[in-house]
Automatic annotation (TrEMBL):
<dbReference type="InterPro" id="IPR016162">
    <property type="entry name" value="Ald_DH_N"/>
</dbReference>
<dbReference type="Pfam" id="PF00171">
    <property type="entry name" value="Aldedh"/>
</dbReference>
<comment type="similarity">
    <text>Belongs to the aldehyde dehydrogenase family.</text>
</comment>
<protein>
    <submittedName>
        <fullName>Aldehyde dehydrogenase (NAD+)</fullName>
    </submittedName>
</protein>
<dbReference type="InterPro" id="IPR011408">
    <property type="entry name" value="Aldehyde_DH"/>
</dbReference>
<dbReference type="InterPro" id="IPR029510">
    <property type="entry name" value="Ald_DH_CS_GLU"/>
</dbReference>
<feature type="active site">
    <location>
        <position position="263"/>
    </location>
</feature>
<feature type="domain" description="Aldehyde dehydrogenase">
    <location>
        <begin position="535"/>
        <end position="733"/>
    </location>
</feature>
<feature type="domain" description="Aldehyde dehydrogenase">
    <location>
        <begin position="47"/>
        <end position="478"/>
    </location>
</feature>
<dbReference type="InterPro" id="IPR015590">
    <property type="entry name" value="Aldehyde_DH_dom"/>
</dbReference>
<dbReference type="InterPro" id="IPR016161">
    <property type="entry name" value="Ald_DH/histidinol_DH"/>
</dbReference>
<dbReference type="GO" id="GO:0016620">
    <property type="term" value="F:oxidoreductase activity, acting on the aldehyde or oxo group of donors, NAD or NADP as acceptor"/>
</dbReference>
<keyword id="KW-0560">Oxidoreductase</keyword>
<dbReference type="InterPro" id="IPR016163">
    <property type="entry name" value="Ald_DH_C"/>
</dbReference>
Length: 767
């Protein structure tokens, strides 16, 4: 034990270990845990050990959930759901407030339990995780109260299966359970096998506050239990974890009609511009990649620093890194605790080894005894190095340089992920410009890893889809307002016509494809017969050409809503002027609809706003609807013109470029649109129109990496195949119900919402 006078000389920290006796007493009194089903704990069975990763000590025994356990839990949730949904918003809110309050009352207990179970420093569980858990329940109590006012016509989904990871165990539980309950759903949640204890303590809190039985059910177990949940009779699956498992879940749920949200991995850029406050940026790295031992999906794991300040930045960074204290998680002065499990430690070390084998240099990052790895970073690392491409999910960043802002953006976006990013610059102009150009769901300007229940969180691309937090998060737990569904006529088999002129067949028209603003013959030269003429039979190559043309028309998004509105008004006017030409091919109702849709979405083009949400004081937190980029749209096989305009116009109004597969059986009215588009100043490539075998073409689009989102109206079988193909790069697929496309419910905000994804930009202020 050092004497005070010695400490005053060395200024070393002494041990300051948080008392864990209350938690240990609780664990000892429970010993073995069953599942929490229907308001009660089941008898423990098929147990496995849950350990403190910092010491290897067994903390408790958990039950491995079987498919039967999952089925029981789903049954309990199903039974409880109608009654829970029928409670008034205020009554549901009261339960959520009670959960929030009881969590707050037990902040210390839960923080210690979390730290023991996960290995994260007590400073983090006490100051970040648990306060955010309480905040999440408070915030969503408000949503329970306001649900019907704010989301009229929306209903709860039913029973939600929720699978969470081990990096923020109780916080991820809160992110999942609070919005689900606020919306009127009931849940079956599976915590990660390494870190189930706070979920089980939460189950006890549910009982304590008198939450109705079966509203929250918790089943413990590993990936097999998770797979059983995905296969169970549930209405929604919400998953946070690895991209690999997320992709498997997407494939498994394809065509089931279940709602799916995925929060997956990341390799987020951390960009330091030459005018950044370098000391602040170094602190940002600490919060980014050395927070929670780097086991953070949105960790700023790729540090990109302007070449002119790189040397100075690295000096500051290494000095700071060396002062980080690695040690006992329960010690209040520990900065870096234990990795969650030996399996994860091995995974981190193996990626580091692959990175150094491929030529990178590792600074720090040495493994310690047990589950500890010192903070570190990889330098001199090539873009294709595995350490640069793979999510390390440990306290190891990469460090590389750039010369210009454009290069920084290019490097930042050179990843299959798109979860988050952090930008450091003293110039608001530079920082916001870069934040806007990074393709990711959450951007932090001059800050990192900020979270709040009001600020939507979620990814682009292979980081998944769906949002947690705020209004966007609520919508992912609600069913869209019901519409009158009309059965769609199945397309007839495509009948080839070799004679492209159609002479002698009584056919008077041969339409073309519309790609890149020009009429194009189909690649294979084939046409098929449709009422009134021949339609071009597009193949995969045409689809690829159309996607390429759409990709090149990126300026459309940059034009802004006002300019896009003008084009859409122009389309409305030109359609009206050419109504007679259309009359030969389609009904008056469809022509009127087409014109009405153009006016409607022209009006919306500059009004589908984002929000400045009330997250933390002193921060501007902007939630912006961003276009996806290239969207593929497979139209229904009925009301060709009305359906086409109802689907395509909202997509382009928001700034997307589209690749559209027209009604298979009767697409000729669409050929009349080419001239309307050409004369309305619609830039080439914004709308590309293909005709032919819809499901085949749609599958090619769904599998195409450059297509960021897909809308499909068609058969259940077709949708299954589309969703399977889309799982490759995890693009979201929306399948609006087939309806009478001339009716009012075929337009509106719902379509705009599906044509955009939210990007949350955090900007702290204060002189
Ligand atoms: P994981 O994705 O296997 O585990 C996450 C959750 O999914 C756990 O509850 C697990 O039991 C469950 N699960 C596993 N297989 C499943 C299946 N087939 N069906 C349904 N549920 C299943 O992640 P893991 O193996 O623990 O970590 C591996 C890597 O994943 C990490 O190194 C990291 O790169 C990444 N990861 C990312 C997270 C994030 O927040 N984005 C969180 C955890 C891990």
């Amino acid at each position: 034990m050092s004497r005070v006078s010695e400490i005053m000389t060395s200024m070393e920290y002494g041990p300051s270990v948080e008392d864990s006796s209350a938690v240990r007493d609780w664990l000892a009194s429970r010993g073995q845990f069953g599942h929490f089903i229907g308001g009660d704990f089941t008898k423990p069975a098929d147990c496995f050990a849950s350990r403190d990763p910092s010491t290897g000590e067994v903390l408790a025994e958990l039950s491995q959930g079987s498919a039967e356990d999952v089925a029981e839990a789903v049954k309990a949730a199903r039974k409880a759901q109608p009654k829970w949904a029928k409670l008034s918003g205020t009554d549901r809110a009261r339960h959520l407030y009670a959960l929030a309050r009881h969590i707050q009352k037990r902040e210390r207990f839960l923080s210690v339990l979390e730290t023991l179970d996960n290995g994260k420093p007590i400073r983090e569980s006490r100051d970040i995780d648990i306060p955010l858990v309480a905040r999440h329940f408070y915030h969503h109590a408000g949503w329970a109260e306001l649900r019907d006012e704010r989301f009229p016509g929306h209903a709860p989904l039913g029973v939600c299966a929720q699978i969470i990871p081990w990096n923020f165990p109780l916080l991820m539980l809160a992110w999942k359970i609070a919005p689900a309950l606020a919306a009127g759903n009931t849940v079956v949640l599976k915590p990660a096998e390494y870190t189930s204890l706070t979920a089980l303590a939460f189950a006890e809190i549910c009982r304590e506050v008198g939450l109705p039985e079966g509203v929250v059910n918790i089943v413990t177990g590993d990936g097999k239990t998770g797979a059983a949940m995905v296969a169970a009779e549930v209405d929604k699956i919400a998953f946070t974890g690895s991209t690999e498992v997320g992709r498997a879940i997407a494939a498994q749920t394809a065509g089931t009609g279940r709602k799916l949200t995925l929060e997956l991995g990341g390799k987020s850029p951390f960009i330091v511009m030459d005018d950044a406050d370098l000391d602040a940026a170094v602190e940002g790295v600490v919060d980014s990649i050395w927070f929670n031992q780097g086991q953070v999906c949105c960790a700023g794991s790729r540090i990109l620093v302007a070449e002119s300040v790189a040397a100075r930045f690295e000096t500051l960074l290494t000095a700071r890194m060396q002062r980080l204290r690695l040690g006992a998680p329960l010690d209040k002065s520990t900065d870096i605790g234990a990795i969650v499990d030996p399996v994860q430690k091995d995974r981190v070390l193996s990626i580091c080894k692959a990175a150094t084998d491929a030529g990178a240099e590792l600074v720090g990052g040495q493994p310690g005894e047990g589950c500890f790895i010192a903070p570190g970073y990889l330098k001199n690392i090539a873009p294709a190095n595995p350490g640069m491409e793979q999510e390390i999910f440990g306290p190891i960043a990469t460090l590389s340089t750039f010369r210009t802002a454009d290069e920084a953006v290019e490097l930042a976006n050179n990843t299959r992920y798109g979860l988050a990013g952090s930008v450091w610059s003293e110039s608001a102009t530079v920082a916001t410009d870069i934040a806007a150009r990074i393709k990711a769901g959450v951007l932090w300007i001059n800050c990192a890893n900020m979270f709040d229940a009001a600020a939507p969180f979620g990814g682009y691309r292979e980081s998944g889809f769906g949002r947690e937090g705020g209004a966007a998060g609520m919508l992912d737990y609600l069913a869209e307002p019901a519409v009158k569904v009309v059965k769609e006529p199945a397309p007839k088999p495509v009948r080839l016509m070799d004679d492209v002129t159609g002479k002698g067949h009584g056919i008077d028209r041969t339409a073309k494809l519309y790609i890149g603003g020009a009429q194009k013959r189909p690649d294979g030269g084939a046409n098929y017969t449709v009422p009134g003429g021949l339609a071009p039979l597009a193949n995969r190559k045409d689809m690829r050409n159309a996607v390429e043309a759409a990709t090149k028309s990126g300026k459309w998004a940059a034009m802004g809503g006002h300019a896009r509105a003008q084009v859409l008004y122009y389309i409305a006017e030109n359609l009206a002027a050419r109504a007679d030409d259309f009359q030969r091919l389609t009904s008056k109702a469809e022509i009127d609809t087409a014109i009405a849709r153009a006016f409607h979405y022209a009006a919306w083009a500059d009004k589908f706003d984002g929000a400045n949400v009330q997250a933390k004081p002193g921060h501007l937190v902007n939630v912006l609807p961003e276009p996806y980029g290239v969207m593929a749209i497979a139209c229904p096989n009925a009301q060709p013109l009305a359906a086409f305009m109802s689907l395509v116009l909202p997509a382009i109004a928001m700034g997307n470029s589209t690749v559209v597969i027209g009604a298979q059986d009767d697409p000729l009215a669409l050929a009349e649109l080419y001239q309307v588009f050409d004369t309305s100043d619609l830039p080439g490539g914004v709308v590309n129109i293909l005709t032919g075998a819809k499901d085949e073409l749609a599958q090619t689009a769904a599998a195409h990496d450059a297509v960021a989102a897909m809308w499909y109206v068609g058969s259940r079988d077709g949708l299954t195949r589309i969703e399977q193909a889309a799982g490759g790069n995890l693009k979201p697929v929306w399948s609006p119900a087939h309806r009478d496309w001339t009716k009012h419910d075929a337009q509106g905000e719902l379509f705009l919402r599906h044509a955009t994804r939210t990007k949350t930009i955090w900007l702290p202020y204060g002189a």
